[in-house]
Design goal:
Helix content of chain B: 10-25%
Strand order of the largest sheet of chain B: 11-13-9-8-23-21-16-19-18
Radius of gyration of chain B: 28 Å
Pfam family, one (chain A): Adaptin_N
Structural class of chain A: mainly alpha
CATH class of the largest domain in chain B: Mainly Beta
GO molecular function, one term (chain A): clathrin binding
Function (chain A): Adaptins are components of the adaptor complexes which link clathrin to receptors in coated vesicles. Clathrin-associated protein complexes are believed to interact with the cytoplasmic tails of membrane proteins, leading to their selection and concentration.
Number of helices of chain B: 9
Strand content of chain B: 35-45%
GO cellular component, one term (chain A): cytosol
Radius of gyration of chain A: 37 Å
CATH superfamily of the largest domain in chain B: Mu homology domain, subdomain B
Distance between the termini of chain A: 52 Å
Protein name (chain A): AP complex subunit beta
Distance between the termini of chain B: 81 Å
CATH topology of the largest domain in chain B: Immunoglobulin-like
Oligomer: heterodimer
Largest sheet of chain A: none
Chain lengths: 722, 481
């Protein structure tokens, strides 16, 4: 018995080697056999299995020629499968698709519209510019097809073509066809043409004049709107929201014509309709607005019974709309009450809307919301609770009545006393905000301070920078209510270096402000810390300034003047958009940018990336490329196999490989040549050429196999190799 | 000198290109997703369809890390994530994520989510359930559907009934595959017609239409019986088994729909509309809010004439839904009394009352009462139904199969609490949830007055059927204090 470690080694060696390769090679061979089987059903199954492997990220590109042989079939299901396969490799192995180009051209004339569509759709996805040239005739023909199903596919192909090769697209003149598709009798074609045009406009705004096009087709759009699929409606509504009405009459007309779509079951249609209405609303006379507003309101409310993700988008958009039309949902507060099974991201947004929505002149509503918020602040999800506590303060500041503020403060105090550390930060900030709102109310201040004073280690209890900053600020503002002021300040000063900028600043200001109440050494110490030990420039500058002031003759007076200024009473803690931002956001309702409140028009326009486009190669060259790639793959399969089998007999190997790969390659070549009928039949010299290529390659088989991964991914490399 | 000249030239360019065309705002109408992925519960891709190549192939590989990184930090995971200029929008269904990636912020998020939901719906019709296993078993058909439902990121056709006519791959879960005529798979003529949801050659021996009116009640109550929020969400579902291209007209007792011709002006005048609503109540008409209609309903006709007319798709579909936020009293009310004797036991008393008409009966009533996680050894006393303790969910469920109107049932439960530990902990305060169904009854009082079926060519006799049911919505709860 050999020693254990050797046994383990041997075991590992065997298992590592054998497992992947056998299955890999075996499966490919098996699939290949299936693909060329004489029984149609077996072939079809093999194609399905190949697609399965492809989905599992296995490289089955070597089967390309075998799959293609199954393309010319009357069985439409099988044809679809082949197209699926081809489409998948259209992206990663564009050069392989050249092998199928002939079939594409034929299929684009098939009597079955489904096949015509598949052909044109696939063709326009292949990133080889020479192939794109073959697209001209099929694309033109399908753009004028009798069948609207084909036309609606073809109009999108124009945008795809444009992305792949703008110049060619312009040269072919299909853009004109695309523009005239806006007048198509079929609404789906109109919608897709619109989408396609807007895509093109997005890639290059100078090619077509989208705005004028939309302008001249408004009536067509409004007509088509009632007759097309939900998705087409969204596109058309999108186009309408780009259009600025000429006068109030037209704006009113547009509103009237689209309003019906507020009642569509698809929430995205509803949101697109809302966008069109909001765009036109400022143009119309105010007297007619009441009814429209009512309808908008109920449409917004209805979005709250859509799936959570949709609610999330809706809530973000409601936030934007509310800022423009604050009264729009004033009667619908309860709709935004939190449901216990709402996901967290919806809950948090709902609180935001609730606080914004509540009518500050309506005590009953505010009181109701207060109890509701109190309920939320006793939940357990920290993010939600934190938002609810902030919401409480915002509510108090919004309603502003002193008794109400007192009530809110009581609630907050109660919360703090529940002795749950995680909420103390938010409570501290919220209470300080309330005090900033009613600075003259000493009673409130006393309550807050006496509670906060009871914390023996505020620096350990509070975790965030802004909470600590608020705590220190409070001490500076109401030193009389902090019996243990000096001890508390000591703690903060001791940890000065570890604090973040807001707290450092706050400590500095407070110490300066209270320098007469605190020992002089502390002032000196803090000024030193703030000038020498901090990395925060603002803090350092501030400290310098104070230091100068303090060293002047009338320092006492000066510092008092500096510190005595009473901060302005805060009226509102709800953030607002700037008017420009708001207008931009209103035009982008429903988009991702409306979720982040970052209008797209502010940012750099999206860059179009062309990946993997094979350019500037002749079609023969591409054919060779394709052949070579498959051959090399075929070779490598075999090579690896041989490597595996032998451990020491490298000397004899070369011949074997050469033999094997040549024959292998030959059979491939023959296969491939069957597929090509670009006019001239392949001459024997071409084959010979191929074979000689192969010989060269198999001589350098070692380098080849190392380069294998690169080969398959990058054709450029491949070319250089020759 | 050279550089300077260049600079000047450069700065001159924007001025030069100042033709009216360039002033067009470059906003985008409907940018959609660049790719759609099905991912497993961890976020690793199972299947992908890339519609455009403007995102790197590796983009999806970041998704699982994005998810797990975020989940580590917080519970707050929004349905859209942004990374490296890529926008990931996703929904969850069973154990899979459906992820759409867009490379621009101007992608229409609402449309993407709506599409993903629709996609689940379509796939559900083909695969029965959409889950990891069924996706793995049905790659081919999913690819086909993905190609048909979306092209270049623009949603196309999502009507399952129509798709089934030309996407006929057998799926593994599908019990009865669509009848397959060899090589007959062509896009149905109707697909691009204005009636894109129905083909003309449907035939039935007996022509019937079934209407189901289902109202779901969402209600949030306090333990004292105060109602914090209540709403009725109604759905009208239709099962159409009608030949040809029938035109249907539905009449319901909605105030807005019926009184339209009587008080045309009332809509413009708040006062008048309030006045008319009181008179209408006598006539037993109700006012539905937020009506939402299926694709097939002629919306503009409804908008102008308040008539619901449509050519239905074949088979089952949801014709319309509506919402009412009128305050209603609880249909099933539970008087809860919970006493926690810390470190020894918890006592629960519950008196349930069916506050509905005597002749109605609530069925399948479930009262789901939360109990502390560490409670054990439950003891129950009850007069009706059955009680079960479900430790996985930390609840006890009281089931009452049949609960006649006006009756009152009660139960009490006692559970032991561990004597040690149990420091005042802050757990989710879960509400009591109640589920029920009340057949032959609608809370809003909605009634179908008529359903006229007219097939102009075939002129057959047809039979409309109506059924009403009220049930609890997903949020019929009593908040415990």
């Amino acid at each position: 018995m050999p020693p254990l470690d050797k046994r383990i080694k041997k075991f590992l060696k065997n298992s590592i080697r054998v497992a992947p390769k056998i299955s890999d090679k075996g499966e490919l061979a098996e699939l290949r056999a299936g693909l060329v089987s004489q029984y149609p059903q077996t072939r079809k199954d093999a194609i399905k299995k190949t697609i399965q492997q492809m989905t599992l990220n296995k490289d089955v590109s070597t089967l390309f020629p075998d799959i293609l042989k199954n393309m010319a079939t009357n069985d439409i299901e099988q044809k679809k499968l082949v197209y699926l396969y081809v489409m998948n490799y259209a992206e990663t192995h564009p050069e392989l698709c050249i092998l199928a180009v002939n079939t594409f051209v034929t299929d684009a004339q098939d009597p079955n519209p489904l096949i015509r569509c598949m052909a044109i759709r696939t063709m326009s996805m292949i990133r080889v510019d020479k192939i794109l040239e073959y697209i001209e005739t099929p694309l033109r023909r399908t753009l004028q097809d009798d069948n609207p199903y084909v036309r609606k596919t073809a109009v999108i192909c124009v945008a795809k073509l444009f992305q792949l090769n703008k110049d060619l697209c312009i040269e072919l003149g299909v853009l004109e066809d695309l523009q005239s598709a806006l007048d198509d009798s079929n609404p789906m074609v109109v919608a897709n043409a619109t989408a396609s045009l807007s895509e093109i406009n997005d890639m290059d705004p100078n090619v077509i004049d989208l705005k004028t096009l939309i302008q001249s087709h408004v009536s067509q759009f409004l007509m088509a709107l009632n007759e097309c699929t939900e998705w087409a409606r969204i596109t058309i509504l999108g186009a309408l929201s780009e259009y600025s009405a000429k006068d109030s009459l037209e704006a009113q007309d547009i509103i009237d014509r689209v309003t019906a779509h507020l009642q569509h079951v698809n929430p995205a249609v509803v949101l697109a309709t809302i966008k069109v209405i909001i765009k036109n609303l400022p143009e119309v006379e105010i007297s007619a607005n009441g009814l429209t507003m009512k309808k908008l309101s109920s449409a917004l409310v209805s979005l709250m019974s859509s799936p959570s993700e949709m609610q999330y988008v809706a809530l973000k958009n409601i936030r934007i709309i509310l800022e423009k039309y604050p009264e729009i949902l004033s009667k619908e507060l309860r709709i935004f009450y939190i449901k216990f099974n709402d996901p967290l991201y919806v809950k948090v947004e709902k609180i935001d809307i609730l606080v914004r929505l509540v009518d500050p002149t309506n005590l009953k509503q505010c009181a109701l919301l207060l109890t509701e918020m109190k309920e939320y602040s006793m939940e357990f999800e920290p993010e939600f609770v934190s938002r609810a506590i902030q919401g409480l303060a915002q509510l108090g500041i919004k309603y502003s009545d002193e008794r109400f503020v007192q009530k809110i403060l009581d609630t907050l105090l109660e919360l703090v006393e529940r002795d749950q550390d995680s909420i103390k930060d938010d409570c501290c900030i919220s209470m300080c905000n309330l005090l900033r709102h009613s600075p003259s109310n000493e009673k409130l201040a006393e309550q807050v301070c006496s509670l906060l004073n009871s914390w023996s280690e505020p620096d350990a209890i509070l975790r965030t920078d802004s909470a600590k900053c608020n705590y220190v600020w409070l001490m500076g503002q109401y030193p009389q209510f902090f019996p243990s002021l000096q001890a508390k300040m000591d703690i903060f000063v001791k940890l000065f270096k570890q604090e973040e900028s807001l707290t450092q600043m706050s400590i500095l200001i407070t110490v300066v402000k209270l320098h007469s109440k605190l020992p002089g050494t502390m002032l000196q110490h803090v000024l030193e810390l703030a000038t020498q030990e901090t990395n925060e420039l603002d803090v350092r500058d501030m400290a310098m300034m104070y230091w100068r002031c303090l060293s002047m003759d009338n320092s006492e007076q000066l510092v008092n003047d500096l510190c005595k200024t009473i901060p302005p009473q805060i009226e509102n803690t709800l953030d607002k958009f700037s008017p420009e931002l708001l207008e931009k956001l209103l035009l982008e309702l429903g988009t991702i940018s409306s979720i982040y409140f970052k209008p797209q028009s502010d940012r750099r326009r999206r860059t179009i990336t062309y990946q993997n486009i094979v350019k500037g190669k002749h079609i023969d060259e591409l054919q060779d490329l394709a052949k070579n790639e498959i051959e090399s793959k075929g070779n490598n399969d075999v090579l690896l196999d041989f490597d595996d089998d032998d451990d020491n007999g490298e000397g004899d190997d070369d011949d074997d490989i050469e033999m094997n790969s040549t024959s292998n390659g030959n059979s491939h070549l023959a296969d491939l040549d069957d597929l090509f009928d670009f006019g001239t039949a392949p001459t024997t010299s071409e084959i010979n050429n191929g074979v000689s290529n192969l010989n060269i390659r198999s001589d350098s088989s070692n380098t080849q196999s190392q380069n294998n991964p690169k080969l398959s991914s990058n054709t450029q490399d491949l070319l250089e190799l020759f | 000198m050279k550089t300077r000249h260049l600079k000047l030239f450069n700065s001159y360019v924007p001025y030069q290109s100042e033709n009216p065309r360039n002033l067009v705002t470059n906003k985008v109408i409907s940018i959609m997703a660049s790719a759609v992925y099905f991912c497993d519960s961890k976020g690793y891709p199972l299947l992908a369809r890339r519609y455009r190549d403007d995102i790197p192939i590796s983009a999806i590989e970041k998704f699982p890390t994005l998810l797990s990184d975020l989940e580590e930090e917080t519970n707050l995971v929004p349905p859209c994530l942004s990374y490296n200029g890529m926008q990931y929008l996703f929904i969850q269904h069973n154990d899979v994520y459906l992820v759409a990636i867009a490379n621009s912020m101007s992608a229409n998020a609402a449309q993407i989510f709506a599409f993903l939901y629709k996609l689940v719906d379509v796939l559900g019709n083909y695969l029965k359930t959409v889950e990891e296993e069924s996706i793995r078993d049905n790659f081919v058909i999913i690819y086909e559907l993905l190609d048909e439902t979306m092209d270049y990121g623009i949603p196309q056709i999502t009507e399952t009934k129509m798709l089934k006519q030309y996407i006929t791959q057998k799926s593994f879960k599908l019990v009865k595959a669509a009848k397959k005529k060899r090589n007959a798979a062509r896009p149905p003529e109707a697909l691009t017609n204005s009636v894109s949801w129905r083909s003309a050659d449907i035939k039935y021996k007996k022509n019937e239409a079934f209407l189901d009116i289902i109202e779901s009640i969402n209600m949030l109550m306090t333990q004292k019986g105060q109602i914090l929020r209540s709403e009725i969400i109604g759905e009208v579902k239709v099962k159409s088994r009608l030949s040809g291209m029938p035109d249907l007209k539905l009449g319901i007792n909605d105030k807005g729909i019926f009184s339209k011709h009587m008080d045309d002006d009332s809509l413009n005048n708040e006062g008048a509309s309030v006045a008319s609503s009181t008179t209408d109540k006598k006539k037993n008409n109700i006012e539905l809010e937020d009506l939402k209609f299926h694709q097939c309903v002629r919306l503009s006709k409804f908008e102008t004439e308040k008539i619901i007319t449509f050519i239905p798709p074949d088979g089952d579909f949801e014709l319309m839904n509506y919402r009412l936020s009128t305050s209603i009293k609880p249909l099933i009310w539970c008087d809860m009394n919970i006493q926690v004797h810390s470190q020894s036991r918890i006592e629960i008393h519950c008196r349930a009352k069916a506050q509905i008409k005597k002749k109605s009966t609530a069925t399948n009533v479930q009262i789901i009462i939360p109990v502390p996680e560490d409670a054990d050894t439950p003891e129950f006393k009850y007069s009706h139904g059955s009680i079960k303790y479900v430790p996985e969910k930390n609840v006890i469920i009281w089931k009452i199969r049949s609960f006649p109107g006006g009756k009152e049932y009660s139960m009490s439960a006692q559970m032991q609490l561990p004597s040690i530990g149990n420091i005042e902990e802050h757990k989710a305060k879960r509400p009591v949830q109640i589920k029920f169904q009340i057949p032959y009854f609608t809370t809003s009082g909605i009634q179908v007055k008529y359903l006229k079926i007219n097939e102009p060519k075939l002129q057959y006799k047809s039979y409309p059927w109506v059924r009403y049911i009220t049930q609890s919505g997903d949020d019929y709860t009593i908040r415990l204090t």
